Amino acid sequence: MTTASLPPWDSEERNAKRARWQPRNARVIHSSPWIEVELSEPIAPTGRVAQYGMVRFRNRAMGMIPLHEDGTVTLVGQMRYTFDAWSWEIPEGGVPHDEDAMAGARRELREETGFEAASLVEILRLDLSNSVSDEVGIIYLATGLTQGETQWDDTENLEIARVPFKDVLEAVIKGQIRDSLTVAAVLRVYHMAVTGALEASLAAKIV
Amino acid sequence: MTTASLPPWDSEERNAKRARWQPRNARVIHSSPWIEVELSEPIAPTGRVAQYGMVRFRNRAMGMIPLHEDGTVTLVGQMRYTFDAWSWEIPEGGVPHDEDAMAGARRELREETGFEAASLVEILRLDLSNSVSDEVGIIYLATGLTQGETQWDDTENLEIARVPFKDVLEAVIKGQIRDSLTVAAVLRVYHMAVTGALEASLAAKIV
Asked: Which residues on chain B are in Cβ contact (under 8 Å) with A29?
């Protein structure tokens, strides 16, 4: 799952013949520890020149859904600057492209919630906003959780809530939880529970 | 579902007391018909000054999952500049904040696939990349589909595929489909099929 392959209705042979974007005149107009903003005039696959503003991410966005044996999930709440609003989410954090993804996910889970996970399994990979950015999201199911100490940085003002999975799923359906990684993680764990990919006693508590 | 409310483990009273981000020194460094890139030095809820680069979207991202009576889904494939890679996705399009969301979704579905939908129902709302942008995604289930003509613009080089829902779901699980709107739409429709929110004969074809 680390390299994207094509689905069965497509083929590498067909893909090799497709016209591609040709990058042109790329220049960086903003650079920070998290992102670069790049403007360019690439040639589109149709042959037309396009004007493109895009965001390159230095980190992958990790989302870890901590599923407890009693069928509850630990969520993190915070004010999101981009929406000027409170957001309840699974624990998340950025992990640089040159750091091992799972090791980074484990560290971010520990820092945000204090939890150590006996098992961390990748369950989904997402391109979060592919019209404008190259941000990749990776979602892990975290189980076998034991509580330790949180380590929050000085722009984080977080709250923790431990909530039955069913309530989290209902909040997703009602649009009360909207963070893309969280929505995808919750619906994927539901799918796992229904299809037998979770331990049966745990699955029985969440569907 | 148009206004985000708080989930049952939270309350408006509690939310009113929370520290917020205070915007400061905002200036736009890039503006296009699609986005604005804004730098600022807001004061975080902790009181610390932050450096923030963010992207404001002029459009909401609409994703319409066209589910046919035979249990197939129509997908659109295209080269994505941001990943320099082919991506299979549900039909998507941008709709300005001041345009009616459902009317825009209907138009975008028609332009990309040629399909008219007898029924278009909002099934999910997402904040796609909330660490860096205010991009909102809205997902519709489109059913009762009749074929008309596509209208592609001159940077679009699209392919259409009509694929069994089960194959699309499997491609999501395997990471062969990664577009966030598509992943969320497919998992949500699966959830609807299992929980009786789809017509029974249709649900039987997809789970």
From this structure: 29-30, 37
Token pair of A69 as six digits? 């044996």
| Shared domain check, B158 and B74 | yes
- ipTM of the predicted assembly exceeds 0.85: yes
B6 lies in some domain: no
| A182: helix, strand or coil | helix
Q: Taking 80 as the threshold, does the pLDDT of residue A4 lie above it?
A: no
A104 and A197 in a single domain? The answer is yes
Q: Which residue of A has its CA nearest to B181?
A: A128
Nearest to A51 among B32, B42, B48 (CB): B32
* Same domain? B48 vs B69: no
Name the pLDDT band for A148 (thresholds 50, 70, 90): confident
Same domain, residue pair A130 and A192: yes
Q: What is the CA radius of gyration of chain B?
A: 19
For A100, the token pair is: 């091992």
Does the pTM exceed 0.90? yes
A48 with A137, same domain?
no
Does residue A6 fall inside a structural domain? Answer: no
Q: If you measure CA to CA, which chain B residue comes closest to A31?
A: B53
Share of chain A above pLDDT 90, in %: 93
Neighbours of B205 (CB within 10 A): 17
Is there a contact between A29 and B29 if contact means CB atoms under 8 Å apart?
A: yes
Distance CA A54, CA A134 (A): 8
CATH number at residue A112: 3.90.79.10
Low-confidence ranges of chain B (pLDDT < 70): 1-4
What residues form DSSP beta bridges with B40?
B52
Say if residue A98 is in the same domain as residue A84: yes
